[in-house]
Amino acid sequence: MKVKVGDVVLPGDYCDEIASVGAKSKVLIGPGLKKEIDHVFVTKAGVLKKRNPSTFWVDSYQKRYIPCRGENAIGIVHQKAGDIYRVDIGGSCTASLSYLSFEGATKKNRPEVQIGDVIYAKILVASKDMEPELVCVDSHGKKGCLGVLSDGFVFKCSLNLIRKILSPSCPLLDSLKNEWPFELAAGMNGRIWIKANTLRETIAVGNAILGAEYLSDDEIKTMCNNIASILTGHIS
Amino acid sequence: MEEYKVLQPFKYFNDHISVNVRPDGRKFDQQRSIKLNANSVNTADASSLIKCGKTSVVCGISLELATPKAEEPDNGFLVTNVELLPLCSSKFKPGPPSDYAQVVNNTVNDILKNSKCIDLKDLCIVSDKLAWVLYCDIACLEYDGSIIDACLATLMTSLKTLSLPHVIYDIETEEIKVDVNIRHPLKVTGLPVATSFVIYQSPDSNVALMDPTSFEEEMCGGNGANLVVCWNQGLLCGIHKFGGATLGTDGHKKLLNVAKERSKTIEEVINTCIANETSE
Amino acid sequence: MVEEDLKDFKLKPMKCELNFLNKSDGSAILAQGETVVLVSVNGPLDIKSTSQNMEKATLEVIFSSKGGKPTVSDRFKENVIRQTCETAIFGCLYPRTGITITIQELEDYGGLLPTTINCTCLALLNSGLAMRHVVAAVGCALDEAGNLIIDPTNDQIQTATATMYFVFDSREKNLVTGFSTGTFGEGVYDEALERCRAASDLVFNFYRDIVASYCNVIG
């Protein structure tokens, strides 16, 4: 079936606009679109989006993570094997993380990572035919915000929710950060790590994030205010 | 050539199809030669052996007496069992029947039931007391595709040559006397014939291949035939399509007619075979 | 004539909830009339190396009937669903992995297999796996008077001389899967195929409505 940008699409649909834009210039097709011989077909159910001038993608619901190059993910160290760690990032197979891809690590000076540690890492290599490879440093050899996440609390959610809270237009984190201090790391693989001063506050952040999945921007603001007032003891 | 087939099976297959010929030299709608033999197993009450190209299947029917089910006191039983042993192909492993064997069995059984060629009431001797059980064991000796066609053909030939001994049942003493010298043939109405196709998705258009070999089945998705059409005396009694590549309406209609033509041929083969058998 | 056609294309009411199960990657519960099926999809998963396929994802379908006892006809249903899904899913994007589809029959008042296929398709949409097209299953029955009934009720199936089920893809509306019971003529078959093909639009529209209602919420 023919569809337009902004429509709800199903797998097997095609969009003439992609073809007409493609005739003039290069087109970037994102997740949920696939080129087959001469047509671009939709492969996922969701809403067809476009960013000018020529980027198209489908915004779809998903829970299972498919590793993708350049994304940040939260993983759990499963195994030490030779000079790599095996890290579970929720994909179809474990990802590998080299001893040497930490800031300042050398053959002699190994990083202190134990089995069971939570790692915030960037995906360097992701291919359907190969095991994904993680790194905990950027291209300058600096760790930035990557590395082992100590203490805190990890929970899982859908991939859409991660994208939603990380989107600049989402008021959730902006509203929450004004209420009380906390640290947060969001992995694109549907895992969130949070750390706040007290257990009560940690649970409050977690619930606020999970509660925001089906809410509009205004509702999110109201919810954040409610949670804040409950936490400070104004309402019980 | 043989190395090419092993190393590049898809390319090898595609090269053949693109010049309108199949790897074994047949045309797309050409079937393999059929050899049929009735009463090939002496220990069975009725039996037959079929060879379609390299696929060979043997069917034996053994008779038993049993009490009918209380829900259907006037019906006898007909039990089919298709066995795909490791003997017939390296694809099958020893052990309990594989999923594929169960699917073949279910399809053959469905076709037989839908065609209504055997009236289960004919198998009843005394209502609620005594009825025949027909155990139809179908064993594949060599597997080279189109297994459902072969199973059904050999099963129908066996059923057509089956005769039931005369049974005297004494209701008061519940004594059973079987007189094997007096036999009357089982009534079989119609003759369902199944025809398998695989549909190959070639770059320009999809083509259907009749009576596929095991290699052709593998090239077109793997699990047996894509389409099984069953004709019974000018009526359809089962169309099973299992995924795979799709065909347009015209192509579909053409296949039905091809299958219809083939069903007449097979019918003739079976009837000739039975006629020869009885005249001997 | 037109009016009569529209009346024929009325399907039994369909009700669906996506993401019914919390823990699975995709799930759907679908009621078509009184027949209810629950499907859960998990994958792509790590599977043992003997069943891995270098070219594409390995599909595993588990059908549990209401009674819970596995039968030969369950294997047949699994086979039909697996082969249908194999054409629908872009398996080549997930090589060496496994996709598990678990189906639980909840109520069977006729037309179980079409409902199962439609529900499986919805669960796959929910799971976010890449698909070539969506599929829609439509059944029809031939009654003793020779009339075709689209999407028959249980009573109509019981008294019918033949039933036919068709599964169509959403791109070209070609026949993906088909199966039948009973005997029927060629003309009847052609007519049933065309009518079901037309009726499949209703199922595709239903999919679109369901996806739309969920998209609005997640937005």
Automatic annotation (TrEMBL), chain A:
Belongs to the RRP40 family. InterPro entries: Exosome_RNA_bind1/RRP40/RRP4, KH_dom_type_1, KH_dom_type_1_sf, NA-bd_OB-fold, RRP40_KH-I, Rrp40_S1. The lineage of its organism: Eukaryota, Metazoa, Ecdysozoa, Arthropoda, Hexapoda. CDD domains: KH-I_Rrp40 (cd22526), S1_Rrp40 (cd05790). GO terms for cellular component: cytoplasmic exosome (RNase complex); nuclear exosome (RNase complex); nucleolus. GO terms for molecular function: RNA binding. It comes from the Eukaryota. One of its GO terms (biological process) is TRAMP-dependent tRNA surveillance pathway. Pfam families: KH_6 (PF15985), RRP40_S1 (PF21262). Keywords: Cytoplasm, Exosome, Nucleus, RNA-binding, rRNA processing. Residues 152-198 form the K Homology domain. It is found in: Cytoplasm; Nucleus, Nucleolus. This is Exosome complex component RRP40.
UniProtKB/TrEMBL annotation, chain B:
InterPro entries: ExoRNase_PH_dom1 (IPR001247), ExoRNase_PH_dom2_sf (IPR036345), Exosome_comp_Rrp42_subfam (IPR050590), PNPase/RNase_PH_dom_sf (IPR027408), Ribosomal_Su5_D2-typ_SF (IPR020568), Rrp43 (IPR033196). It is found in: Cytoplasm; Nucleus, Nucleolus. GO terms for cellular component: cytoplasmic exosome (RNase complex); nuclear exosome (RNase complex); nucleolus. The keyword Calcium does not apply. One of its GO terms (biological process) is U4 snRNA 3'-end processing. Residues 30-165 form the Exoribonuclease phosphorolytic domain. SUPFAM superfamilies: Ribonuclease PH domain 2-like, Ribosomal protein S5 domain 2-like. Keywords: Cytoplasm, Exosome, Nucleus, RNA-binding, rRNA processing. GO terms for molecular function: mRNA 3'-UTR AU-rich region binding. Belongs to the RNase PH family. This is Ribosomal RNA-processing protein 43.
Automatic annotation (TrEMBL), chain C:
Its main location: nucleus. GO terms for cellular component: cytoplasmic exosome (RNase complex); nuclear exosome (RNase complex); nucleolus. Keywords: Exosome, Nucleus, rRNA processing. It is found in: Nucleus. One of its GO terms (molecular function) is RNA binding. GO terms for biological process: nuclear mRNA surveillance; poly(A)-dependent snoRNA 3'-end processing; rRNA catabolic process; rRNA processing; U4 snRNA 3'-end processing. Coiled coil: none annotated. InterPro entries: ExoRNase_PH_dom1 (IPR001247), ExoRNase_PH_dom2 (IPR015847), ExoRNase_PH_dom2_sf (IPR036345), PNPase/RNase_PH_dom_sf (IPR027408), Ribosomal_Su5_D2-typ_SF (IPR020568), RNase_PH (IPR050080). Residues 11-129, 133-192 form the Exoribonuclease phosphorolytic domain. It comes from the Eukaryota. The keyword Nucleus applies. The keyword rRNA processing applies. Belongs to the RNase PH family. This is Uncharacterized protein. It comes from Leptosia nina. The lineage of its organism: Eukaryota, Metazoa, Ecdysozoa, Arthropoda, Hexapoda.
